[in-house]
Amino acid sequence: MVKFITSTFTVLVLTVAMVKAQSPINIADYPPVNQVPDTKSAQVQAWLKEIDLTGAPALPLHSGAPPACPNPPIANECYWTCDGCAGDDITACAAPNTWGLTFDDGPSTFTPTLLNYLKTQKLSASFFLIGSNVIQHPEIVKRELDEGHHLASHTWSHHALTTLTNEEIVAEMKWTEKAVMAATGLRLKYMRPPYGDINNRVRFVLKKLGYIPVDWTGDAFDTNDWRQPTMSEATVIATFTKSLDTYVAGPKDKGFYCLEHDVNNADVTVAQKLIPLGIARKINIASVAGCESDPQPYQAGGTAPMPTTPGTNSTKPSGTTRSGASPSGTGTVVKSSSASTVSLNGLGVAAAAAVVAAAGALLA
């Protein structure tokens, strides 16, 4: 009983610390939604003073949404969408036979429907968040985190990054980071460039900010959900079914990342029809954090206890989540409490004790 009380108190302290780490979001304190932030603002100027952009590749800005491919190609640009050059971006799930489940452009009013579905299926996904949407729906972002999903950045305004200056890229990333920090206390670590629009200049700036770019695994794993209603739902399903069948027939030594969205009803509806196709083919499902076996899927410097990585979700008929470390090393599943320990986002009592002092400061 004493151990139970101690564990419960620790969880209570951590929970209160998490709440204290979050701060109310006043939309007026942020840039206009869906617009590239002003780089002359005091906040952006302060961020720029913290970052050394010296040595950034001197590549010309592109134009368009998405930009047209330069003709001829620009030397040493390593432009993913046009040259097929990914640099050191993550383009495939590191775990074999695994679908890296990702959703872009949210949160939206349709995201809760998707979250309800993922919860019933016991699945974890990565949500690449647009900062402009985060400040409008912070409660959805909190729910995504609470239900074991992984949060990542999709910039502030969804502008193609190769069309922006280095300073504008910093503003796009940092305002989104600030919004998610206010909502969750966590500092984002992974990002996906809008339209997959990334080259060596963009990569340079992102690395300076501590971000890891995650593309998707080529056109075959673009679900085309964004083409609806120009492309019918039936065609979307048929096209992606062929991609899954081709994948299953191959070596499956690596997994794949898909391109899906949670911005409207059509996206969310078709996602609930595509995911069962992977489950039926016994493809495991994981978030980016799970795919990459990253036990710390957020950057240091947040104000909340850092969650651990959820493991891969098995597609066994039972639909249960693997406990402990998965055979493919895709992370550790949060275990239930025992007589001697309670786990909160993967933190046991011993580990939690290390943050009690910090929690006390937050409570003061």
UniProtKB/TrEMBL annotation:
One Gene Ontology cellular component annotation held by this UniProt entry: membrane
Key words, A-Z: Hydrolase, Metal-binding, Signal
Polar residues composition-biased segments: 313-325
GO biological process terms, semicolon-separated: carbohydrate metabolic process; fungal-type cell wall biogenesis
A Pfam family of this chain: Polysacc_deac_1
InterPro entries registered for this protein in UniProt: Glyco_hydro/deAcase_b/a-brl, NODB_dom, Polysacc_deacetylase_ArnD
UniProt keyword Metal-binding, yes or no: yes
A GO molecular function held by the record: metal ion binding
Stretch list, region Disordered: 296-335
All residue ranges annotated as the NodB homology domain in the record: 97-286
Range of residues in the leader sequence: 1-21
Biased composition (Low complexity): 300-312, 326-335
Name of this protein: Chitin deacetylase
Protein species of origin: Podila minutissima
Taxonomic path: Eukaryota, Fungi, Fungi incertae sedis, Mucoromycota, Mortierellomycotina
Gene: CDA2_3
